[in-house]
Design goal:
Blueprint (H helix, E strand, L loop, with lengths): L1 H20 L2 E10 L10 E4 L4 E4 L5 E8 L1 E8 L6 E7 L4 E6 L28 E4 H10 L5 H5 L4 E5 L7 E5 L7 E5 L2 E2 L18 E8 L3 H4 L6 E7 L7 E8 L4 E11 L3 E12 L14 E16 L2 E17 L1 H4 L7 E20 L2 E18 L2 E19 L3 E16 L8 E15 L4 E12 L3 E13 L4 E12 L6 H5 L16 E15 L4 E15 L2 E5 L7 E5 L4 E14 L2 E14 L14 E10 L4 E8 L1
Parallel strand pairs: 1-7, 11-14
Antiparallel strand pairs: 1-4, 2-3, 2-5, 5-6, 8-13, 9-10, 11-12, 13-14, 15-16, 16-17, 17-18, 18-19, 19-20, 20-21, 21-22, 22-23, 23-24, 24-25, 25-26, 26-27, 27-28, 28-29, 29-32, 30-31, 32-33, 33-34, 34-35
Length: 643
């Protein structure tokens, strides 16, 4: 009996000791940012040696469960911040607090140039959509010929074809015609007026480092033409390490594109050189003997020279040249074998850019920029030859100053445009000059609220003066919720070169009558909400919801002339063009998998017509989905879009 009791006690002691050796512990993790100790939602905490981890909640807290006693390497990471690793000794310490520091070069530190401030992405009240980095590389690989692929991927943006024969395209932001969107490159206006019809098709993307898209009135920042918004493309600049990119792309639509980009820099000098050549054979996939894509030959060359006289001053000069020849229509006519329909566009562009940028003090800078652009285009269709030259100039000076909580920008610019039609009779020449002055301010009201205000006054010859205020307000919560509310006024002076005239190949379109027409004016506003949270320890969710409204008064219309049969003349609309809608962008992430969903509701009403009809060729509903897997070595994805 004693032996049985003794054995039982030994077994109990062994079981107790065994249980003690398997005691587990939970460690508590808190993650905050180094700016103001705000909790970081969605930070990953992991211990690779035991394959355990957690994701922080809205309070910046997470728990890693069931750890045995021992020493572990605990790592915390979050996009835009430097990774941190500490040695965790269990059970000596069960609570760990991390204060993450922002990483250089990540999304949060990207400076948005289009708002004219030196603020980072997350501290800008104006709503800006950013495309850069790997996403831009991906879109460039899909279409290295032009920027249409990049732009059409943004929710609420449509690329509208204006010519079936030449495949010309125009950008539509939130249902409004392309002439209401300002295209910029490095802050310079691109391809307005006569040069606008082929603009999207003649901007290759390989030398661009980032796209910045502002939807809604931006005329206060950049003057007339930015009623629907603006697209600013920032070029690559030379770095200490030389860069060489070569790309050769072939398509099933019988197109071949070659691109080369080179950049290099030393202490005082730098350079970039970009060249592109595209050859597109006429493409007829449906066999109707009519080209869906034209025969096209395009060559572009863009060298830039940079001079750095000191650490605080940069001077750069650029030259851009493009030659483009497009033939579309009946296949036999393209080959020159019969008199079938043939549409040919021959265009030449040559432009210069000059920028002097100097840091006056630690908190102020001065910039001067100038551009001269020459554009020649000849449009040939049966029984008509429309050709002419356009010369644009742009000059601007601006002064920036900033303090801990406030940024100021003061500036003035001069813009001229001169179109000279090469015709025997009924020339439709245009000359316009605009002088403008502007001021913009961004102020941190407190830790949660940031206010941006701006005011521009433009004086245009023949059309008068325009006063354009704007304001935007940013709210940042202590968690992952942000909201932006903004609005402003805009204007657009009448111009011969609209999408309606382009579709008519400018045939029988009468000149702008400055005695009968007035400038278009607009007001617009937008409101968006952005929120993200962790559904589980490994599944993260974020949503951005935008609502917008833009109203255009005295819209420019092209209609049949009542006094000149067979001709078309411009007039002002008697009521508003009203564009309103919503955009939804949703993102799910699970480890290396990402799922993006987007939806756009676009309601563009023509109130000057009976029944307030929807604008033609504008899809009211657009939806898209992208599923993607990516790791450090490769990526694969599937994209679907419907309208």
């Amino acid at each position: 009996m004693k032996k049985i009791i003794l054995c039982s006690m030994l077994l109990l002691c062994y079981a107790f000791a065994k249980a003690q050796s398997k005691t587990t512990y939970d460690i508590n993790i808190t993650v905050v940012s180094d700016e103001n100790n705000e909790p970081v939602l969605g930070a990953n905490a992991s211990i690779k040696s035991v394959q355990k981890g957690a994701m922080t909640d809205i309070n910046g807290k997470g728990i890693i469960n069931n750890l045995e006693a021992g020493t572990y390497e605990l790592t915390v990471s979050f996009i835009g911040y430097e990774k941190q690793t500490v040695t965790a000794v269990i059970p000596d310490q069960l609570d760990y607090r991390f204060q993450l520091h922002e990483a250089e070069g990540e999304l949060e530190e990207i400076i948005i140039q289009s708002t004219r401030s030196s603020r980072s992405f997350k501290r800008t009240p104006t709503r800006v959509e950013f495309i850069g980095g790997e996403e831009l590389i991906e879109k460039t690989a899909m279409n290295s010929t032009n920027i249409a692929m990049v732009l059409r991927e943004s929710t609420g943006i449509q690329m509208q074809q204006t010519s079936q024969s030449s495949a010309n395209q125009s950008i539509r932001i939130q249902g409004l015609d392309g002439r209401y969107t300002q295209l910029l490159k490095d802050g310079f206006p691109l391809y307005g007026g006569f040069a606008g019809g082929l603009s999207i098709m003649q901007v290759p993307p390989l030398d661009i480092s980032q796209f910045e898209i502002i939807k809604g009135s931006s005329s206060t920042l950049y003057g007339g033409g930015a009623i629907a918004g603006l697209v600013n493309m920032q070029s690559k600049t030379p770095d200490d390490e030389a860069e060489l990119d070569l790309m050769l792309v072939g398509t099933q639509a019988l197109g071949v594109t070659g691109n080369v980009f080179y950049s290099a820099r030393n202490d005082k000098w730098g350079m970039t050189l970009y060249g592109s050549a595209n050859s597109q054979k006429e493409y007829d996939p449906d066999g109707d003997e009519y080209s869906n894509l034209p025969r096209a030959r395009t060559i572009s060359l863009n060298p830039k020279v940079f001079y750095y006289p000191s650490d605080k001053t940069t001077l750069w000069l650029g030259l851009n040249g493009t030659f483009d020849d497009r033939k579309g229509g009946n296949l036999d006519a393209i080959d020159g074998n019969n008199n079938g329909y043939l549409e040919q566009n021959i265009s030449r562009r040559l432009s210069t850019q000059a920028v002097w940028d100097t840091q006056l003090t630690d908190h102020s800078s001065f910039q001067f920029k100038n551009s001269v652009a020459y554009f020649n285009r000849e449009l040939l269709i049966p029984n008509m030859d429309f050709k002419g030259n356009q010369v644009n100039t742009f000059t601007e000076v601006n002064y920036k100053t900033n303090s801990i909580k406030s940024d100021w920008v003061f500036g003035a610019n001069l813009y001229t445009s001169s179109f000279d039609e090469d015709a025997q009779i009924n020339e439709r020449d245009q000359k316009d000059t605009t002088i403008g002055a502007f001021v913009n301010n961004i102020t941190d009201l407190n830790d949660n609220w940031i206010l941006e205000t701006g005011l521009r006054t433009d004086f245009t010859t023949d059309w008068g003066a325009f006063v354009l205020p704007r304001a935007s307000l940013l709210y940042k919560s202590d968690g992952r919720f942000t909201s932006r509310l903004g609005g402003g006024l805009g204007y657009k002076i009448p111009d011969l070169f609209t999408e309606d005239a382009e579709r008519l190949n400018f045939q029988n379109v009468m000149a702008i009558d400055k005695n009968e027409l007035v400038a278009e004016t607009s007001y617009g506003m937008n409101l968006d909400f952005d929120y993200g949270f962790a559904i589980t320890d490994q599944i993260n969710f974020s949503i951005n919801q935008l609502f917008y409204l833009t109203a255009i008064d005295n819209g420019l219309l092209l209609n049949s002339s009542a006094t000149n049969p067979g001709m078309f003349e411009y007039s002002n609309a008697t009521d508003f063009t009203l564009s309103r809608g919503a955009e939804t962008n949703i993102k799910f992430s699970y480890k290396d998998f990402k799922w993006f969903l987007n939806y756009a509701f676009i309601d563009t009403q023509l109130n000057y017509l009976d029944g307030n009809p929807q604008k033609p060729l504008t899809a009211k509903h657009n939806a898209g989905s992208v599923i993607m897997y990516e790791n450090e070595k490769w990526r694969i994805g599937y994209h679907n879009l419907c309208a």
